[in-house]
Write a structure and sequence with these properties.
This protein is α/β, with parallel strands linked by helices. It folds into 3 domains: 131 residues, NusB-like (N-utilizing Substance Protein B Homolog, Chain A); 37 residues, no CATH class; 207 residues, 3-Layer(aba) Sandwich (Rossmann fold). It contains 20 helices and 13 strands. Strands 5, 6, 7, 8, 9, 10, 11, 12 and 13 form a 9-stranded mixed beta sheet that branches. β2 and β3 form a beta hairpin. α9 packs parallel to α11. It is globular and about 70 Å long. The relative contact order is 0.09.
Length: 446
């Protein structure tokens, strides 16, 4: 039995049937089987898990073409086995079609009944790269984008409300990219040049990014086991996420609130910008998530973060006008991070927009009361829908005349972010290989 593909099938089942997050399910299964897997196995498992999860809609379109049985009626184990085989045939040139078919048939024998293996064999022998190319001949533009980029049609339709066809196609294509690994240098412990030298000694290649404190790295595997990571010299953070902390621009000695802080990437960057002086209160509604912030701060050697369980939607009079700066990186649909977490596409529904925007507005409305007069607040999401972003800010400013847009020019690395600033009000970042899709807006209390 091919253990790597067996592990893949277990993970895909969890993502499909238990609504597990792809990255968490992958890490759990790799940990469970670590003594049985080689580095080559791990690379293949990651490739197929992310590949099948990313391209599920497209793969299903192709399978439908060759199957007389409706996909809903096929057992989840067998449909995922066929998806795995189809992904390898269409998207992985290094794996021969015969190997993809044979290994899938072996899995079908194990997880299905007598007819499952011959059914799997029959479908996969018919599938060819030309099946994918045919989808580009679809005439209806929305359907074509959906089926060629494996993006649910409701997301394509939502994006078309605010972008033109070409832009939507680009966003959907970029959501399928494998992102670069970007690290943030812990300036409390090291400098960029020092860290680059240390990483290169470990055969980890580094490249500069548009932001001072960040590097793109190659050949960084098993991050948790890298001593430089364990000793807090760097942390993993996307450029877009880093920008939200940069834009808040807290000063040394200030009193800062990060009201939706877990797992602590932005919170710890705020502390590094503040040179570990002042105070940051870091909240999350769940205790286990608060602990993630504590662990991150401890690893990075940060002393000024006070992490606690707190509900950012519930007003507490003791916090009224207490903070100089507030960061609200609010819960969102996460459509800007699909390239990292492709399962988001399948777990989200159009109906979720109403519920999430209500929560976002409540957090902003409530936490704005905790800001001192003259204080600044950054509202951010890793989403790209107007309803979660501009619409929330515009409604808030309409209802709260004591707030207005803040200027961005006083930020340290203004030149690096000015290309993303829209009408001097918002920062809109669309997904590409180096950036998650992100929205950032800074407002000030008059």
């Amino acid at each position: 039995m091919d253990i790597a593909r067996n592990v893949v099938l277990q993970i895909l089942y969890k993502i499909d049937k238990e609504q597990a997050y792809s990255n968490i399910a992958l890490n759990e299964e790799l940990q469970k089987n670590k003594n049985k897997l080689t580095q080559k196995d791990i690379a293949l498992i990651s490739e197929i898990v992310y590949g099948v999860t990313t391209w599920k809609l497209t793969l299903d379109e192709i399978i439908k073409k060759h199957s007389k049985i409706k996909l809903k009626k096929i057992s989840p184990w067998i449909i995922n086995t066929i998806r795995m085989g189809a992904y390898q045939i269409i998207f992985l040139d290094k794996i021969p079609k015969s190997a993809a078919v044979n290994e899938s048939v072996n899995l079908a024998k194990r997880y299905g009944h007598r007819g499952s293996s011959s059914f799997t064999n029959a479908i996969l022998r018919k599938i060819d790269k030309s099946d994918y190319e045919e989808l580009f001949k679809i005439e209806e533009k929305t359907e074509k984008i959906s089926k060629t980029t494996s993006m649910p049609i409701w997301i394509v339709q939502e994006l078309l409300k605010q972008y033109n066809l070409k832009e939507v196609e680009k966003i959907c294509k970029n959501s399928n990219l494998r992102p670069n690994i970007i690290i943030r240098i812990n300036t409390l412990k090291t400098t960029k040049n020092e860290l680059k030298q240390k990483l290169e000694k470990e055969n980890i290649k580094c490249e500069e990014t548009e932001l001072e404190d960040f590097l793109t790295v190659k050949n960084l595997k098993n991050i948790e086991n890298v001593s430089l990571f364990k000793n807090g010299y760097f942390t993993i953070q996307d450029l877009s996420a880093g920008m939200s902390a940069m834009v808040l621009n807290p000063k040394e000695g200030e009193n800062v609130l990060d009201a939706c802080s877990s797992p602590g990437g932005k919170t710890t960057y705020l502390a590094e910008i503040m040179k570990n002086t002042g105070k940051i209160e870091a909240w999350d509604i769940h205790e286990h998530r608060v602990n993630l912030v504590k662990q991150n701060a401890q690893r990075l050697g940060i002393k000024i973060i006070d992490s606690k369980t707190n509900d950012a939607t519930q007003f507490k009079p003791e916090y009224e006008e207490k903070f100089d700066k507030i960061l609200l990186d609010v819960p969102c649909l996460g459509l800007g991070v699909i390239k990292r977490k492709p399962d988001i596409k399948w777990h989200r529904k159009k109906e979720d927009i109403e519920e999430i925007t209500k929560l976002q507005f409540n957090i902003l409305n409530n936490c704005s009361k905790y800001l001192k007069k003259g204080g600044e607040l950054v509202y951010s999401t890793c989403s790209i829908l107007k309803e979660e972003n501009q619409d929330i800010i515009e409604r808030f400013l309409k209802e709260n005349k004591n707030f207005t847009y803040s200027k961005y020019e006083n930020i340290k690395q203004y030149n690096a972010i000015k290309t993303y600033i829209n009408q001097s009000k918002y920062i809109n970042i669309n997904t590409d290989i180096d950036h998650d899709g992100f929205f950032i807006c800074k407002i000030v209390k008059k």
